[in-house]
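Is this the right way to post structure tokens for a design question? Let me know if I should format differently. Anyway, here goes:
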């Protein structure tokens, strides 16, 4: 039997040259190749007559060759034209720079041609043709053509032929890893059949059966993996908290009354924490909906019950901000709050750690410094992750492992459509804060071409500053490196200080600055010592300065919708009317689409749904966002029914055998670990 983990270059018929090309597609082993599934299929069963062809469509015709001619209009350019006909008309096939091809055509032969149609009046031309001579064409082969996702330098034809060659090896057999019970229950085909028929379907029906199996399997593995990471926390016995009387006094001491939605979320949380079972809850609320105070009250309730709580945030700025607001509110009630972030000195850290261990700290706030091994709690009762989409699955569970079944709360401002939530948080209860605090005015968003940049700076920025408000200017996103991004930010500040706002106070914030520097800048922005804060995306999440009312985003086309929405959420946090100016420098369709969505709505749920539509769930599930294995074929919209079945089955499996140790689940477990490890290195399952 052939080892599927074999390096691709040693596979029969592949060799170093082809393997280099395959590496470009992230194909390194035989298994990678076999699981390199087509992106779509073109149905070539539907033969058309020449007379039925429409301009710009792709179609297959069955025709007789009537003549071949070649020409060479320029040096280095060869055109081969082939006249063909059927009983309804004539057409021309056009081939560029394939001089050898003319020898393959013989007048009078019948061929099948698939190509792109250009039709002007009665002239029909087919380009990018793929031709099949009917004589060498076995009758009962299905004409469904796989189309692979490719990069430059690798053609679809090459991939098809490489895979065909591999599949024809008699020794090849892909071992089944789904338990027989599941195969029978859901009437799935074997993995061997599925892989073969996805690449080279023997019939349309076979392709359908193959796809069904793969979709089911992708969902099942994703879901099982997720459940396993969560350690079956749902079933764990929790710590029973009482609702403390003091909580009411804390509520009363707040400068505002909770909104109805906040109130609801809070009681759901308090109820959960009174229950036998450990809480496992997600709070979804749009930017600015007031999630922090809900977290604060949950943590206070934990502390008042004599347990320690932890709050983890993705950035230092955010952690510090939480630290300040929690200290302000809770200290007078005798609740001790501490901060643990990377930029503390060693000594400071040691002191905090000591206190946490000795239970002299009630609430510990920090970045992922919290999950380091040396952090030990005395009696951790509640763990909260803010902006959870910024953390990997593993990071989250690492924090809760520091206690004995602590209650778990995760908060996100990237609301996701229900369908997605169902997968990602299949085992979580969900609270939704779908109401903004009173008095907020919707942010007015205006997208302008970069030629209007001057106007935006000279009139809008000044106007807001004159009213006593403050302004954020976000520099273009640079994907490659934080350092280049920081440099761009420095340059922008120079430009602004020298050219536009010589008389205003312009500050700078970027990811390469030291924690203490960032801290100082944020403090002076909060204290109104800075009028305009130029920043990279480090301010994307959580930052809260209600007096800031104008946000300008440069090169807005480089950001995704969800990110633009997060950034925009930095303004509109107080009672003043706020604006967001998106300056774009692209005329692409995606850009236009994004800009108009941003102008139309402030609703995070709607935006993320659109985002999903534009980018497709594939990217949404990309490793950057969630650290989850990629769904290659499964589509959460199209395959909702299969998703639900797979989810049910995953629940059942975890319930019966939550570590997947039974004989029939063992092989499946290996597959899950492999798939998850492919995208997330940090994950190790035991
Ligand atoms: P997010 O949900 O984005 O984390 P925050 O918790 O940062 O939002 O809250 C945004 C702002 O709204 C803060 O200034 C906070 O003090 C304020 N806020 C929260 N809840 C209320 C409320 N019920 N009434 C008035 N203001 C509120
Ligand atoms: Mg927040």
């Amino acid at each position: 039997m052939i080892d599927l983990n074999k390096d691709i270059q040693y596979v029969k018929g592949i060799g170093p040259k082809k393997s280099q090309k395959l590496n470009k597609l992230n194909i390194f082993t035989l298994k990678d190749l076999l699981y390199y599934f087509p992106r779509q299929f073109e149905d070539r069963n539907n033969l058309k007559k020449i007379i039925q062809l429409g301009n710009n469509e792709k179609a297959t015709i069955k025709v007789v060759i009537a003549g071949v001619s070649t020409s060479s209009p320029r040096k280095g350019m060869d055109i081969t034209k082939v006249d063909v006909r059927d009983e309804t008309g004539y057409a021309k096939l056009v081939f560029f720079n394939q001089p050898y091809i003319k020898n393959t055509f013989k007048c009078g032969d019948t061929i099948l041609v698939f190509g792109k149609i250009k039709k002007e009046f009665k002239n029909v031309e087919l380009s990018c043709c793929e031709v099949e001579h009917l004589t060498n064409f076995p009758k009962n082969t299905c004409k469904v053509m796989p189309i692979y996702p490719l990069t430059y330098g690798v053609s679809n034809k090459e991939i098809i032929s490489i895979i065909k060659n591999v599949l024809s090896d008699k020794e090849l057999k892909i071992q089944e890893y789904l338990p027989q019970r599941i195969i029978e229950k859901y009437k799935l085909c074997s993995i061997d059949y599925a892989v073969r028929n996805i690449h080279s379907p023997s019939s349309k029906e076979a392709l359908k059966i193959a796809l069904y199996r793969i979709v089911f399997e992708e969902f099942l593995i994703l879901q099982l993996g997720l459940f396993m990471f969560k350690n079956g926390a749902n079933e764990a016995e929790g710590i029973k908290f009482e609702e403390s009387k003091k909580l009411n006094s804390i509520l009363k001491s707040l400068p505002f009354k909770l909104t109805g939605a906040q109130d609801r979320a809070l009681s759901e949380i308090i109820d959960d924490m009174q229950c036998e079972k450990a809480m496992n809850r997600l709070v979804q609320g749009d930017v600015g909906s007031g999630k922090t105070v809900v977290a604060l009250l949950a943590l206070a309730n934990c502390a008042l019950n004599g347990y320690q709580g932890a709050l983890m945030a993705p950035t230092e700025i955010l952690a510090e901000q939480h630290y300040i607001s929690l200290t302000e509110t809770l200290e007078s009630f005798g609740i001790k709050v501490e901060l643990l972030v990377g930029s503390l000195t060693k000594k400071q850290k040691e002191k905090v750690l000591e206190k946490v261990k000795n239970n002299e700290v009630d609430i510990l706030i920090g970045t992922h410094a919290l999950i380091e091994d040396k952090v030990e709690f005395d009696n951790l009762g509640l763990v909260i992750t803010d902006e959870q989409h910024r953390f990997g699955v593993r990071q989250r569970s690492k924090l809760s492992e520091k206690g004995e079944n602590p209650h778990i709360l995760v908060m996100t401002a990237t609301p996701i459509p229900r369908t997605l939530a169902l997968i990602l948080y299949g085992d979580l209860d969900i609270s939704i804060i779908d109401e903004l605090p009173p008095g907020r005015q919707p942010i007015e968003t205006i997208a302008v071409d970069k030629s209007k940049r001057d106007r935006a700076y000279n009139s809008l920025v000044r106007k807001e500053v004159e009213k006593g408000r403050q302004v954020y200017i976000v520099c273009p996103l640079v994907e490659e490196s934080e350092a280049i991004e920081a440099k761009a930010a420095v340059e922008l500040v120079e430009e602004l200080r020298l050219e536009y706002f010589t008389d205003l106070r312009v500050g700078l914030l970027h990811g390469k600055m030291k924690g203490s520097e960032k801290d100082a800048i944020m403090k002076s922005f909060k204290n109104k010592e800075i009028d305009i804060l130029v920043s990279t995306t480090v301010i994307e999440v959580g930052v809260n300065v209600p007096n800031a009312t104008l946000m300008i985003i440069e090169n807005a086309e480089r950001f995704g919708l969800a990110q633009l929405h997060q950034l925009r959420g930095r303004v509109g946090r107080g009672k003043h009317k706020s604006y967001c100016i998106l300056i774009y420098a692209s005329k692409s369709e995606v850009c236009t689409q994004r800009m108009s969505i941003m102008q139309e709505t402030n609703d995070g749920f709607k935006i993320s749904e659109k985002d999903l539509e534009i980018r497709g769930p594939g990217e949404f599930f990309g490793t950057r966002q969630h650290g989850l294995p990629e769904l290659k074929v499964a589509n959460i919209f199209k395959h909702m029914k299969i998703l639900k079945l797979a989810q049910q089955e995953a629940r059942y499996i975890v319930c019966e055998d939550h570590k997947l140790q039974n004989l029939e689940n063992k092989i499946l477990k290996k597959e899950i670990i492999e798939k998850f490890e492919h995208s997330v290195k940090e994950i190790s399952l035991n």
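Format looks fine. Someone answered above. Worth noting: Residues 310 and 364 are 5 Å apart (CA to CA). Confidence is low (pLDDT under 50) at residues 679-686.
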